[in-house]
Amino acid sequence: MSDCCSAPGLLPFECALENMLSQITPVTETLTLPITQALNAILAQDIASPLNVPNHDNSAMDGYAFAIASLTQGNTLTLVGRSMAGAPFQGECKVGECIRIMTGAKMPECCDSVEMQENVKVAADQISFLEEKQLGSHVRNAGEDIRWGQHVLNQGHKLSAVDIGVLASLGIKEVIVYRKLKVALIATGDELKLPGQVLNSGDIYESNSFVLRGMLDKLHIDVIDFGIIEDDFEAIKAAFVSADSQADAVISSGGVSVGDADYTKTVLDNLGEIGFWKIAMKPGKPFAFGKLPNSVFFGLPGNPVSALVTFHQLAIVALTKMQNAQALKRTNLQVQCVSDLRKSPGRMDFQRGVVSVNDQGENVVESTGSQGSGILSSLARANCFIVLAAEQGKVSAGEMVTVQLFDQFIC
Ligand code: AMP
Ligand code: MG
Q1: Phi first, then psi: what are they for 231, rounded to 5°?
Q2: Which domain holds residue 205?
Q3: Residues bordering ligand 2, an ion, CB closer than 5 Å
Q4: Of 23, 248, 334, 390, whose CB neighbour count within 10 A is largest?
Q5: Is a pLDDT exceeding 80 seen at residue 134?
Q6: Is the CB of 255 under 6 A from ligand 1?
Q7: Is residue 373 in contact with ligand 1, taking CB distance under 6 Å?
């Protein structure tokens, strides 16, 4: 940990992140998967192209292939054969001759250019070219998309649907990827009920594990759901011991703010080396992180917005490192804020906002309104975080602010 992180008081956001990342060990186990099962998996190998794409010079148009030299002797050529996609022209052609050719069909050896069919006049086997042509017109050259041996994807890359298509286009049917992580989810609280259950006085519906499940799914991480665990020392301990024995990471929500019924801290103090942090961020001040005997532990705050923001800003970064994936690049933009924003210096804020384009064609951001850490619907309405530095005070409408656009894990 760097010096800033050992200072007393609230832990700066960057220090919390740095501390966490320094304790994360990436997975090393790999497996070979057919590309049809590799969507969102993390590549454990570099991929170099085993061929040229396209593999041969081919036509970009339906039309006529010819040698540009033929047109120096007049603009009418004799049709002597055809080249179809998958059935190339096999013969030879001479100066003054041309070949009917379809889009994607292999260029005949004797031809170097193509004219589209709309620009010729056809009279039996006599093809008259109506416009002057350039050498190489409408020809797609072998290797112009990807050259043989060219580096296509790097180790650590998360495979998208397009990447799977690129691999298929290279004739690659299997890839070596890192094994999937397993994360155990635990929700704590006597007041929590599942959708479908009856709410008694003082109860609320559990939502954190539903949000986290969805986000973990997008991260390509398997979830072991421990459901809702009551505020009881033995029950919480049994859940944590079991979760630790099965998962690479254990994520709980609630019970880290050290209230009267928060047994999580006592249990974790018994089981592992956990830091209970007060991070200088809003929402999300209480956050726990550390090591259990077999796994790492993330203790998210119970409030739904705080749980999501700490998961997104801190835990996902650590889980990405654990997956052996390339570090995330988040999209930060400077835009004009059209709302007044309340803020006191001291903590880094992740306020919820909506970026849009105004009548002048400029990007502007508007606050979603009340920023309470229990208001999950404020996140559902938002499409970005308005990120305000710890030392920043209130913002007046018209000032420029930094926004971080929601990535695929939230949307
Ligand atoms: P705690 O950190 O346990 O004191 O919880 C803080 C607030 O978050 C309380 O209002 C809890 O009822 C609420 N909360 C805790 N866990 C969840 C959950 N899994 N889903 C929704 N709200 C929760
Ligand atoms: Mg609680």
Answers
A1: -75, 75
A2: 3-29+179-322
A3: 189, 254-255
A4: 248
A5: yes
A6: yes
A7: no
